[in-house]
Design the sequence.
């Protein structure tokens, strides 16, 4: 099984959120099951720097610009980097200019990525042609569409929705630029409230659609969570599934983690106590093992509900807790948390920014993590927390609901609890959950310890979900060509191959090009994503 992943982020090359973690880890888990996965990414400066030696495997003219495909390896991943300096060799985050605004040509940048994915899915690259093109989020949402337009046999397509809130909305004036014939601008095509949605393109035109947890898959079919695309999702009901994300336990493992001062295991948690002291010191908190340390590691965005936590902070502190927050995003929230830190010295520590190493220290050193999300497609930080024996306090939504077992009386009696779950998502319910946690911390430390052991025993790796993806790929019918209703030739600029392709034909250009040096241009993501 040959699979081409197409995405705008991939850990450890470039990351603003959980999408990168998934695109970095799932290919390796699939690889362990025998699949051959390559990841197509934009050659941002960070990617160029991390890839090191690459070879040129293709050169094309795409959407008016010259692009080169570079094959390389990094951290066990086979990467194909789309080198298009006019689109991707820029400072800032993958989606934003250094001042935090979206790049105005994001739709062209990512349509080019999708066009190249379709080309590889139909023609192959350097003698390798995927059986499946697996596209992630709106940035890759046109890849299945361009493949539908092709008149030659092409790979099958899977599209994964990581977050319905980012829909890749583009004005209809861009139809031509994106090579989308106007007949696809319909209610059951890509039309979205008088504009185009590239996320909807992925939902409508791929062979199968997935999202990242079973509960979010249910939620997406409702008006509350579907964000206007619940109809499009429901129309694909028989081809739609929720497959839970996993974690890469070579990166997130308290037994082996090199980014924390002391490693530990459920049998011996003394290392966690040392990490807690280091975390308290790093965030300027009173170094006191008796106080429960709560952490937040998050984008500061509406989705994450961190305004709700602010309302609960006074009680958390009054009852003896400490808070460590690592995050960036909404300027008002950043300011509010900075003010909270200034107002509660020794009890609230805040770091505004993005810091991979500190995120490991916070997971290892904290006693609990708070995730009051209004919606959460899967969420990875509660999975990392489980693995690190850091009890999650989570809203009952999306993947949070699927992965944390509330330590209520029944669960305690059966010894299956792993954290604290609250619903509905409001300050009163969160306050109650935090109070329950603090009561347990001080009143029943042996029960807390049992919950930690339960949490650390949860199977949060990728194996089971990778098997589900593989089953999904295998369930796809043989390769197909074209849209069901007689596709006309796409507009001139479209990437879809018009000539009969030469599947598995070598397109490698002989000349090797050294990777450009990484520019240390990455800024902390603000919203972390491009809303489109
Ligand atoms: P989302 O993708 O919606 O942001 P997830 O929970 O799926 O949420 O993934 C977030 C990822 O980003 C995790 O790997 C988390 O550790 C990381 N992360 C979020 N904020 C920060 C930060 N400020 N510094 C370091 N890592 C962060
Ligand atoms: C999105 C979601 C998050 C999910 C991640 C990876 O960013 O917000 O819940 O874990 O994608 O799938």
Sequence:
């Amino acid at each position: 099984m040959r699979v081409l992943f197409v995405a705008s982020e991939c850990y450890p090359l470039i990351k603003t959120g959980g999408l990168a973690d998934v695109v970095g880890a799932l290919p390796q888990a699939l690889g362990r099951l025998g699949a051959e996965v390559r990841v197509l990414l934009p050659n941002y400066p960070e990617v160029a720097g991390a890839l090191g030696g690459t070879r040129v495997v293709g050169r094309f003219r795409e959407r008016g610009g010259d692009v080169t495909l570079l094959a390389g390896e990094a951290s066990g991943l086979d990467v194909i980097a789309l080198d298009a300096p006019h689109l991707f060799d820029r400072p800032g985050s993958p989606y934003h200019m250094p001042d935090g605004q979206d790049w105005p040509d994001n739709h062209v940048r990512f349509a080019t990525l999708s066009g190249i994915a379709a080309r590889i899915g139909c023609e192959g690259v350097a003698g390798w042609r995927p059986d499946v093109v697996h596209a992630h989020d709106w940035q890759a949402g046109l890849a299945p569409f361009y493949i539908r337009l092709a008149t030659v046999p092409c790979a099958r397509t899977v599209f994964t929705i990581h977050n319905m809130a980012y829909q890749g909305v583009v004005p209809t004036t861009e139809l031509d630029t994106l090579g989308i014939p106007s007949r696809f601008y319909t209610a059951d095509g890509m039309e979205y409230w008088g504009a185009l949605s590239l996320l909807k393109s992925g939902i409508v035109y791929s062979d199968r659609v997935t999202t990242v947890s079973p509960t979010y898959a249910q939620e997406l079919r409702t008006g509350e969570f579907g964000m206007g695309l619940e109809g499009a999702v429901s129309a694909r009901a028989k081809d739609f599934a929720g497959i839970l994300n996993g974690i890469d336990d070579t990166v997130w493992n308290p037994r082996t983690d090199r980014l924390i001062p002391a490693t530990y295991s459920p049998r011996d948690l003394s290392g966690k106590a040392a990490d807690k002291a280091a975390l308290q010191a790093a965030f300027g908190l009173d170094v006191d093992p008796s106080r429960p340390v709560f952490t937040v590691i998050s984008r500061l965005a509406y989705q994450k509900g961190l305004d709700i936590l602010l309302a609960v902070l006074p009680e958390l502190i009054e009852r003896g807790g400490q808070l460590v927050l690592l995050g960036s995003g909404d300027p008002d929230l950043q300011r509010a948390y900075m003010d909270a830190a200034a107002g509660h010295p020794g009890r609230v520590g805040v770091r505004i920014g993005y810091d991979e190493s500190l995120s490991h220290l916070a997971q290892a050193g904290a006693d609990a993590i708070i995730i009051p999300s209004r919606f959460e497609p899967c969420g990875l930080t509660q999975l990392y927390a489980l693995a690190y024996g850091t009890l999650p306090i989570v809203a009952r939504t999306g993947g949070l609901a699927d992965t944390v077992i509330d330590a209520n009386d029944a669960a305690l009696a059966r010894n299956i609890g792993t954290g604290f779950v609250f619903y509905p998502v409001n300050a009163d319910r969160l306050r109650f959950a935090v109070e329950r946690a603090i009561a347990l911390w001080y009143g029943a430390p042996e029960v807390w310890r049992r919950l930690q052991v339960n949490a650390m025993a949860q199977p949060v790796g990728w194996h089971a979900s990778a098997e589900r993806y593989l089953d999904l790929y295998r369930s796809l019918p043989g390769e197909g060509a074209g849209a069901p209703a007689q596709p006309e030739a796409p507009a001139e600029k479209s990437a879809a191959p018009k000539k009969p392709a030469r599947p598995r034909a070598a397109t490698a250009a002989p000349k090797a090009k050294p990777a450009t040096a990484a520019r240390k241009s990455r800024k902390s993501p603000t919203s972390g994503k491009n809303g489109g």
